[in-house]
Request: fold
Amino acid sequence: MQVPLAFPSIDQNDIENVIRVLQSGQLVQGSQIKLLEKAVAALIGVEHAVAVSSGTATLHLALLSLGVGPGDEVVVPAFSYVATANVVELAGAKPVFVDILLDTFNIDPYRIEAAITPRTKALMPVHEFGYPADMERIIEIADRYSLPVVEDAACALGAEWKGRKVGAWGKIGSFSLHPRKAVTSGEGGVLTTNDSNLAKFFSIMRNHGIDNASGVMDFVAAGFNYRMTDIQAALVVGQLKRLKTIIAKRNVIMDCYDKELKPRFFQKPKPPLNGRTTWQSYHIVLNDDVAQTRFLHFLTEKGIGANYGAQCIPVQTYYRKKYGYTSVEFPVAYRAFSQGVVLPIFDSMTENQVSYVIETVNNYKDLIHVIQ
Ligand SMILES: Cc1ncc(COP(=O)(O)O)c(C=O)c1O
Reply:
């Protein structure tokens, strides 16, 4: 049996939406982008949503809008997808890494203060794998130091912390619509904010620095082409309406994993006590004496699309060479990186596929001491 790691939730309606855009000839800057932005703003509960070309472009614009540049620092978790730190570098600033908590895979809020310096320009927590970070505590620290918070919610569209959607807690929320997420536009990203000046900045900077407000095309900044196409927006607007159902189905799969996977040689993720996760990934952490690569190889041979979860960013070559970081400084992030494995989870996963993954993992015998 073949079980992919992820599979997008695209139905006939979504396909027909895309066809309609293709037939209309209006492939960019049309009505679909506006529909998408309106839907995301309503979903998150914010005034503004601005669609761009990726969940990396979102973060880049977010940092630029806050004036982050050379000489500045941005506090980020040590365990995330590399884009979280890359955008800080792209803005000319320095990412300052903070270790994570192993039960949430998110930044350890109790370590944030020690990372703040006079050069800190923003805090950028990540809702890793769709699991909400402790936003109350993070906002409390940010307020105390008068720092803006950018939520990297790339995997977390629809997740909540204490009843409020992630992406609505910080000054700016950032989402990805990459195919590994619960809903997808192929490539794409959305920024959320209640600040109309920031929303205007995002709109101008995604489109070559053009300001149309006066009715005349005026180039007011050196912007990017970070636009999302209407083809991409059309693909995702229908999925957004099904987001609740998609997440509910992911919860059913996670329940099966939780009940039936025998944690003989790994730690299972737990649902958050004070929030809701999107289960973008089901991330297990192997015991230290279990070889990650061997287990991944075993799953691949069995037709199961497993993979590494995320990176311990400070020890990736670029960051290690530039800043001299070692794994010893970020023991939890390093453990999640070197022992973490994501198992398949997607809304169209069949019962047979779920059972097959459970059975295969439960029968893993390439271990000496776990087997007895
Ligand atoms: C935490 C995090 N931030 C940013 C990104 C970048 O998003 P994109 O691939 O849409 O550029 C990702 C992508 O998976 C991510 O997981």
Notes: The chain has a mean pLDDT of 96. Residues 54-56, 80-81, 83-84, 126, 152, 154-155, 176, 178, 189 surround pyridoxal-5'-phosphate (CB under 6 Å). Residues 267 and 285 are 5 Å apart (CA to CA). The domain at 244-362 is CATH 3.90.1150.10 (Aspartate Aminotransferase, domain 1).
